[in-house]
Design brief:
226 residues, mainly alpha, Methane Monooxygenase Hydroxylase, Chain G, domain 1, elongated
């Protein structure tokens, strides 16, 4: 496991500020992770109430992003961090943006969940949602764990999970298109499922970005275009 160890600073307050930023990022990550799980669960259970809760909670994620951005700007202005400290602050500003985008996608899934819950027991496409949803949820959980531990090796393993998710997404598209061709009456239903799996695929992409930031913090390497 490759981990980062920040040097102790002359001013303990600086250490405390960096730790607070990291802790709040993890809190935001946990909130977003739960939003994703609830959005997926609401589809499987036809639970419009749970879906509505996901939609209403999204505004708190937006506020967390704004607050963390403000804190990072303040640290840069006050402390003028360098080396690994600067990489951490820069990575957090990018990570909170990706987490907020994941929250947005979870909200989109919840919106489609409400529409699907109003249909008459049509379940075509739900296995695809369950399959790719489980993969994306695991990837996000693994990425957040790697960030909490500053584990670049684990981040790279998680980064590579996106390849499998992309394959699952393409498979789901083919299967959903088959549903529509076999039953034209299911087109509206399947289109909603298509939007759901599209959001899940995008969440995989944003999670991949989180992994890139972990490697950047720990190793100082930019792997975005590798």
């Amino acid at each position: 496991m490759t981990e980062i160890s920040f040097e102790n600073h002359i001013m303990k307050q600086f250490d405390d500020e960096l730790e607070e930023i990291r802790t709040r990022l993890m809190e935001m990550g946990g909130k977003v992770e739960q939003q994703l799980k609830n959005a997926i669960l609401s589809i499987h259970n036809g639970d419009s109430k749970l879906a509505q809760d996901v939609i209403e909670q999204e505004k708190f994620i937006d506020q967390m992003e704004k607050d963390l951005d403000d804190s990072c700007i303040l640290v840069i202005a006050r402390r003028q961090p360098a080396a690994s400290d600067l990489r951490l602050v820069m990575a957090v500003t990018k990570a909170v943006n990706d987490l907020e985008r994941i929250g947005d996608e979870a909200k989109k899934i919840a919106n489609h969940s409400i529409i699907l819950s109003e249909e008459d027991n049509k379940k075509s496409g739900y296995p695809e949602v369950r399959h790719i949803g489980a993969s994306v949820s695991k990837m996000l959980s693994d990425a957040l764990t790697a960030f909490a531990r500053f584990d670049a090796e684990a981040a790279m393993k998680t980064f590579n999970q996106d390849v499998q998710i992309d394959l699952e997404y393409k498979t789901a598209l083919r299967e959903l298109m088959t549903y529509m061709m076999e039953d034209p009456k299911s087109i509206t239903h399947v289109i909603n499922i298509l939007w759901v799996v599209r959001s899940l695929e995008r969440i995989g992409d944003h999670t991949k970005n989180l992994c890139e930031q972990i490697v950047f913090v720990v190793q100082g390497k930019d792997i975005r275009h590798d």
